[in-house]
Amino acid sequence: MPEPAADVIVDVEFDDGVFFLVVRNIGSAPATTVQCKFEQRFFGLGGATEMSALPLFRKIEFLAPGREIRTLLDTSAAYFARKEPAKLAVAVTWRDDGGERRQRTIVHDLSIYRSIAYRAIATSPAIPSA
Questions:
Q1: Between β-strands 43-44 and 87-95, what pairing exists: parallel, antiparallel or unpaired?
Q2: Strand partners, 44
Q3: What is the pLDDT of residue 124?
Q4: How far is Cα of residue 48 from the mean position of the Cα atoms in its chain?
């Protein structure tokens, strides 16, 4: 039987017109010293935040098996309106329980989401406090 291994990915989730970035350990052992380096800069949260430079992607000391860290990127409409990169390439590195360095490169093509219909969620007006 093979030894349990850490296996880390960076995923892009699309939920009702909103993008999320997720760092996930899909393996069965902990990952340490997780680093995610994007090929190019890109911005989220209305263009105010350089997502590729967030501390989340610089170094995660410990990521338990089956755990994930998820952050909001932006609405797809806002992201595409700013002409942010549609292709996101990220090099992910981590160390396994034995201290061995592992890595993979993942490419996401967000342009596939341009033509997906989604349900717009209306926000209710703020209720003034008494």
A1: unpaired
A2: 49
A3: 47
A4: 17
H runs (alpha helix) in the chain: 55-58, 76-81
Measured CA to CA in angstroms, residue 74 lies from 21, 70, 79, 80, 84 at distances of: 10, 13, 6, 10, 11
Which tens digits make up the pLDDT trace of 36-86? Answer: 999 999 999 999 999 999 999 999 999 999 999 999 999 999 999 999 999
Is residue 11 pLDDT above 70, yes or no?
A: yes
Domains recognised in the chain with CATH numbers? 8-113 (2.60.40)
47/8 Cα distance (integer angstroms): 27
Distances (CA, A) of 92 to 2, 6, 37, 116, 128: 23, 12, 7, 28, 46
**Neighbouring residues of 24: CB distance < 8 A, sequence distance ≥ 6:** 8, 9, 10, 11, 67, 68, 69
Tokens of 97: 């329980």
- What's the whole-model pTM score? 0.87
Q: Which amino acid is at 48?
A: A
